[in-house]
Batch of 4 targets.
Target 1
Amino acid sequence: MKPGVTGTAIAAIISVVIGVASAVYAMVSMHKLGKNKQKNTKQGNSIYDVNVQGNKVKLMERIPENFGFFKRYPDYLADRHVFYRNNTLFCDMILCQGIGYYDYKSDHSDIYIGETPVSELKGCSAYVIEPGVKITAENSPEDKSWYCWYSSTEVTRSGHTLKSGQGEIDTSSKDGVNLEFSGKTFSGFSYQSFSHGYGGCSGGGTDVHRIRKTFDLKWADGTIFELSGVTNTRRISTEIVSARSDEGITVIIVKKDALIQDFSYLRARQTEVQTSVDEEPGKETQTEVIVRNGDYVRVSLSAITSVTYDTIPSGSSGGKSVTEEESNDASALCEIQEITADGDNVTLKFDSSDLTVPAFPDTVEPSQPYTRITDTANRLAGSAFQPMPADYPYDDNGFYEIVSFRDGTYTVKRLNDSYSEIAEWLGFFSSGINQENTVFTLISGQASDGGYVGPYRACPYGAVSNIFELDFSLPSGLGKLNDDGDFEKLTITIQIEYRRAGSDDEYTVIEKSWTNSTNDQLAETIRLELDAADNYEFRVLRTSKEDGSTRALEEIKWTGLKSVISTIDRYDNMTVLICRFKGNETLSELSENQLATYWTRKLPALGYSDNQPLLPTRDIAPVVQYIVRKSKYRNILDVDTLMEFD
């Protein structure tokens, strides 16, 4: 013993160490108690969910110093890494046992979930990485299993259900859609038919019902979209009042369409008289010169003659009245030479070389035997449609923003290529036309049902990564039940799109599809390894059409978005525990319990040298030696005297 250091002093030092440890323990316990009083009831988890959540993430906190033999709940070094492989859920956990080395069993029977050792649970494995040891595929579950992952809080296990067909809507792919534009609005509808069988004495039958459905993009107000495939043609009239051709001029009078609000681009030919003088006789000559051609209108005319007659009675049934008709037709693209408006009527004059009014058929011969002809009549039918003039300022194909959707009608505003409003836009030119091949493409905005899910950031703010994972689940399986009780194949296709978060970059698109015929739950994790590390955002779109039948199993959810935020493969001063759990029924029953270790801390044996062997110990003397030698008072103790307390 060194001079001035008595046994009483040693005992005092030991009591101080124990007192400090007790005080820290008491404060931590009281802190936890205060938190526990404020806890909400924990919700239950679904079967087969690997949900070992008892251990805690303690970011930026001190790494614990543990002594003796005790029950320890290791802390997370990073988020749990949950992923799917072959439709099975796996969970990798990277845990910190604490500073230093520990004594543990090689079969891991001293690692518990609840009251059950990991060694007794099927599909569970554990790997202990001692301080300074490089983590490799040989001493861990597999290559890269030690990577630290960040899980987005915006894409969670509850999932975002992906609805179909809302990112790009092609009206030609929808059965019987009637889509019309008017002013700064558009609307549409379609009919859905279904059959209903009924019984009866004569064997029953089938009724066919039709339900009118409003065309709904299912995009919210403020959504920006691109319109393409519009015909750029407007309806002038579908009602011919009169028509005649005389002296090289064809004149038709039509009842203008109610949707026509602007006649500024329905213009007649402009001419002017130019005078020239012949120099020798001095005679003036006046010539009418075309200054601007008239706008063009496609006119279709039908001169229809009809005959109505009574048929000869047949058998027990009497005769019936029948009307039959024949027509002479003409159609042409005509230049307007003159145009006048009078109330609802519009008079158009064309050159007869463009269009001549057809004559009515002379007679219509009845196709069935008849007793008498009761009526004959002549009538004109036809239409007038105007293609968009070359100098019209705005093609109807372009970018728009939804202002509102009320009572089945969308009101929009026109945008330029920079998505800024064009204030002088007068409205759609293509009014009154059934737009059969129009395509609506979502540019940005929030879908009210379906459409793009996202974009969501895969990394925390300020972090970057080039390795990402997206999880998808088909909770009910994939397939369609037929009349025989068997499942037929169905296919689901999605688009995964990503770009630098917050940028205006074009999205990079990846397509993925699933095909199956089962009611077993399906799931898959898609890993992306990009060339450049950055903070990326992801969005997902379901592109395949939903079957819609109650027999179809076709629900798909986006259930996870993760990024690698650290690839550290060595921890110099701590013992690390890597565990892999396979989702199964046994582990699901234990999912509410915590993972704990029953290990003994290894400390240097008592002695004067700093190179004493590490031994597992529960004694207080090695602890005191360790604490003092780590402090600035490392030479205060005499080891021989300290051994008396061992």
Target 2
Amino acid sequence: MNQNRNGHQILRRMVKKSSALAFFLLFPALAALAQDDSGPDYTDIVQGFADSSRWLTYSGDYSGKRHSPLTQINTENVASLRPVWTFQTGTTTRGRGFETTPLIDDGVLYVTGSNNYAWAIDAKTGRRFWQYRRNLPDDLTYGASAPVNRGFGMLGNSLFMVTLDAHLLAFDRRNGDILWDVELADYRVGYASTGAPLVIDGMVITGVSGGEYATRGFIDAYDPVTGERLWRFNTIPGPGEPGSETWPDDPEILARGGGGTWMNGSYDPELNLIYWGVGNPNPDYYGDSRPGDNLYSNSLVALDADTGQLQWHYQFTPHDLNDWDSNHMPVLADIQWQGEPRKVVMVGNRNGFFYVLDRVSGEFLLGKPFTATTWAREIGEDGRPIVLNDGSKGCLPDPWGSTNFMPPSFYPELGLFYLTARETCATIVPEEPNLVPGQSSFGGVVFIDPEVGSGALRALDVQTGELRWEFTYPSPTFGGVLSTAAGLVFAGDHEGNFMAFDAVDGENLWHYQTGSRIWGAGAMTHMLDGRQYVLIPSGTTLTAFALPER
């Protein structure tokens, strides 16, 4: 209790200072926007949350912290939060969710939706300015099973979106016109793309889905003006390349080794490194055909942004047999580690472990389980998991994992990492698949115990990985997380509840029933005309909340 009380006292002092800073920054920024319609440049994106009227990239800034400095909505008044408008998309995703994070600039929200719809919306009223709908082929492969999209990238007056038929598009944000359209890969083989592109200096970075098909994952960089491909990093090495020794000596197996890159990455401008998670090997559950660790599947890779060359990697789940993709949001932070300043990258992984790595070198610093997983309970000194249950003993976390792609949040001043945890029990029976291009090849059958399953919002101490507090959900949940400098954490559950919590102790301060489950999306927040808004996608609806006007 004393620890929580001290934490609240620290936050109150910080909130007063940051409120003044937000007020000071807001009005010059709005004046500048009124005079300049050229859109944000790379410097603006680097500055992240410096302009509180903007949210220019998936996590709000390059670090992936998803931690806003805004303080108008705080622990004292959040109970008065009310919906001010809703936007009905008219499109839904069967079995999934509305997974986007809206971007905002100059009072306009840019939103992607299911089935490759996209919109520009008035941030004050929810009124639509323009709508785009892609004419998709009727023989989609992976894109038909997960017709989702997680958001735009933005640079200047251009928006960038990937598609279910594995293309990358550039839009004119003023009218929704397409500026260029390039193919990432052949969707008929099994490829699609669903993540929000990462825009850095002179490049648009994106990845692909399709690891359940006989595909080979990659991360690409494109010129934002012309759409020309600048480089490609293949997540499964070719014959003779570093990492190929962790696979059978067979070019055909390497060419269909999986390793999708369907979630977003983070970026360190100072180190000029891109951090990106890599998905499962293929086949997902049948490992007899691919003995070895199967690099760079289930890994975090750090790439030189100029060339796409691999600088280091860390593999979370060697020789994965459970479809525990490592497609998570890497969270970058500068922290004190054992008394010394350290540049780190943090990941809450699908395998049930929370990791802290040195983001300069990839050195393993910490690995601690955050669920009751029976797969492993510790990481060895060599950075590899000490596996206790390879699946033969049953009751492992299901293929959706102990967490998934839904974004976490990191509160630097509290040293707490917030993530959605899933407690499940599954048994996987491997079967040799029949490999056919354009057809999935999971290589097994999954049996999930319907009587065992729950979820939780958990706050982890980043120094130790220990649980500081949790709020339990009635079912395994896919809602993402947002924290703010006002001492708040926003999260949602599978039952459709959008909630606000005290960041220090997890007290539930407010909730709103959206009517549909919150799946894959985390909230975002921004200022507009002196008023703070919080937005959450749910089902077919985007809802904006704010405090009552005085």
Target 3
Amino acid sequence: MRAGNIIKRTVLTAAALGAAFVGGVAYPTLHAAHDMGAFRTAVGLVPSQVGAALFTAARGQDNTPSPSDVYADVLTTLQNNYYGLKDYGGQYGGTGITLGAGKGDQVSVTKIDPNSPAQQAGIQVGDAIETLDGKPVTSTPEIDLNTMLWGAPGSTIALTVSRAGAAQAVPITIKRALLPREIDATQMTYNGIRGMMGSLKDRYTRFMDPTAYKAMMEENQGEFVGIGAELSTNKAKQVYVVKVLPKSPAMKANVMAGDIILRVDGHSTFKKPDTDVVKLIHGEPNTKVTLTVLRKTDTKTIVIPRGVVKQEIVQHAMIDPVRKIGYISLLQFNEESDTQVTQALRDLQGQGMRGLIFDLRGNPGGLLDQAQMVASRFIEKGPIVWIKSRSETMQTMENLPVDPSLHQGLKQFPLVVLVDGGSASASEIVSGAIKDTHSGVLVGEKTFGKGLVQTIMPLADRSAVAITTQHYFTAAKNDINHKGIMPNIVVKFTDDQTRKHYAYQRDHPDAFYDLKNDPQLQRGVQELEQGKQFASATPRNWPN
């Protein structure tokens, strides 16, 4: 655990512990691929785009219906015959209106159910709702608006709407009714796939709908379309800006740390998790997002053009300028990891670094080829990880070796790697290889223990499945699945240290390490300062 990025780490680690791991394409296929940019492997939180996969289901020679035929028959039967009622929380009626964000702070009608009370009353898509039963919608939390549309069947609700071309607001009264539930074939199919995956009782084999898959691809690529502001939730359950990234659209638009976000494109953030607010802010390139923020006592409206924002996954500093001890933290393994780690190494090396602490705590994993490259920066020779498919044995499985070309221009230093229960998958590959090859010392707590590889298979509608296809072993062929890696030196936080550490992060939101209250970091520094190897070490060039 370290100060700074606690919010990021909490989200990532929760995802890891919640079985949001994906990753891994068969090693022989990866090894044979010529275009590594188009054929990536993931063994942690973030997936990568791999070649398209086709799933076929064929009938047998005796024309016995396949499971896919039966599934299609059930879906068709439901679409043609099902007559259930929409559930509005008991015996409530609805209007058939779907509300969404309009221009500025407006709330507009985005959808009307066919033959619904709203359609019969003359409501039109695009109508801007000004009042519901006399209450202005712009001052009403969005979560309450849909609730206000519910009511006893036969009861009425009065709306005032503004409509394009109308000189003044139009009053409309709608009588609520019980509405038939629509069959969403797409969602039913997705849920069917989720059930299929769930029947395997494999926490890592799962389905991603197009939205989830797109988000994970962005995570994997190390960049996203947004404004470049990190968000969190304060004690009053308000979403606020923790940090504005340098040179980001948010910084150019004068968004400031501490700004409380009230609305995003007219959507209230009231009672919304900060992760949902982030989703509202993200969007397509070259589009704009409008934030309504509270800055101290002033309310401001800020229009921000969305742009491509690179994630900050690596942070570094010379934490002991006298003894020249450098520090690098890596939050995850995506396409930017090796590039950013190498830049940090070169910067610290230029400052005369003589020892390094590499922090992988809370890092849930990522791309396998990035793990190979990062490990190659620290390990002189030997296998990094062994990978076994279902058709291979321990004797025939293959390994990913150190890439000697990645030693170019770098020096070898005494190394301490910090790990904990949130260090998983690709983090365990790197830390396990460093431990097994005696390239460094691990300090902290036992790692998570994920030794499985998932293949990411994109589907035709831009959804994807992650399927467990391989088992991996550390450089010394140790099986860590459900076991984890025990560090060379075990150091745990006390409750008092944890409280002080979080207090420090709260008071220093830009800090990414805490030498005063972090016992694991303190022990890492001590190991380098007092170690005989460090005391007598003179950096030597890596072999070319």
Target 4
Amino acid sequence: MFALGITLVIVAAFFYLPIQAQAHTPHQCPETILDQPMLSGHLDQSAIANGKMTFSEIFTAGKLLFDGVFNLCDGQGRPATTGGGLKREPDEPAFSRISAPDSNACAGCHNQPRSGGAGDIVANVFVLAQTLDPVTHSDEAEFSNFRNTLGMFGSGAIEMLAREMTADLLAIKTAALYEAQQTGQSVTAPLETKGISFGSLIANPDGSFDTSHCFGLDPDLIIKPFHQAGRVVSLREFSNSAMNHHHGMQSEERFDLSPDAGVDFDEDGIAHELSIGDITAVTIYQAALGVPGQVLPDDEAGQEAVRKGEQLFDAITCSSCHIPELKLNSPLFVEPNPYNPVGNWSDQAQSFSFDMTTTGEGPYLEKDGDGAIIRAYTDLKRHDLCDTEIDYYCNETLSQGRPDQEGKPGANFFLTRKLWDVGNSAPYGHVGDLTTLTEAILAHGGEGRVSRDAFVALPPEDQAAVVSFLKSLQVLPAGSARVVTQSELTTSPTTTSMARFGPFSTSTTFLLLGTFLLLTFALGLYFGRKFKTVPE
């Protein structure tokens, strides 16, 4: 009977230790491959939605999906599919630097200053080349848009900001249509949200709309905060697309379960390569990465230069587009996004949420009443930074779905770059071919020309102060405060093991776990001995 005590410990451990929820049987390597898949199992979305997995378990699983190196046994590669998800003959190279697959891990490109961050120019993407069949080996602009890899820190807050802005714009559209139908007259409605103007639309009594005066976004009025062209709605859409494009890892929500595709659509012998739960986990991981913050010099003179630079940044009107702070009505990140396009799971009945002001790896968003403050220095709006004298940023020929605007090609328009990580996310520009912030500022023409010329007119010491301020905006170590000094930065934790995943730190969680298991063992030992003394 003594074994009863051990059994109780094992049972307790089984129920307490992280759940490895699986949506289907783990993949197996072919008989001729003596390796193992990187993924030992797959997550069940219902386990996530029903609370059978903790936030830290989901985050940890998502980190594995982001950092892990996929191999053939996982389903890496897409012989019979383009990077855009269309069928092709399985006769193309397994890897292609231009048309992809070009990587085995998300962190292969997103790694500066650490996993989840931006990338050097060597990690650039040839956007749209992945859709070509046959693949192209040319890096000419007629085939693709050459883009630098952006960081994902703070991306959960950015997605929720875009959702709230979208909801506002769609509500304006609905109200305008209602008024037009009630009055029988066309109604012109200003499109403004969070103090940002996107032009106007005209609603007609017959239910049609004129969006020719909408500026900085698509005619559907959905703010798309990801990709430098502003073409991706959510982290989930971004992840689904990137998994297929870069790794040849196909999610079941876009392929196996889609009537337009089917099981093992890429014909690599592996079906259901990524479950709905897997994509949720990698989405939550990215959404819960710490928000960037600020690193201040230790000396008073250095701090004063940063303060002065911030004031000058506003004075020369950089802040008109790089808006220093925007308010979130709710601090919650809720997955999935209701505006996800077809091919991306969006069932609101199985949603998962967490509070971005208290949960994640940290630093957290700044709480503000019932909402939160986002200090991202963006307006999530597309702008044209080119004119007849300065056209450095207008080097693309493919529109990637961006509409023409006021007679200018859509390829000229890019989302306002988020600056909250600019201090340690070089290089700069959408190509990543500018190595200094000064160069990036001087390349602003078009809508940014006034601010650029005002910067040029500043004395050198004031220009240096602006750069010092921008350099202070950085990705910080996991778990740190939002604002730290340089000396505090060098002594702060640098791994996600120090992060807090809710009300308890990781160390506290392990202490509670150890205490629980010890008490369980003691009780098992006591009852085991008691039962052993009973005559048989």
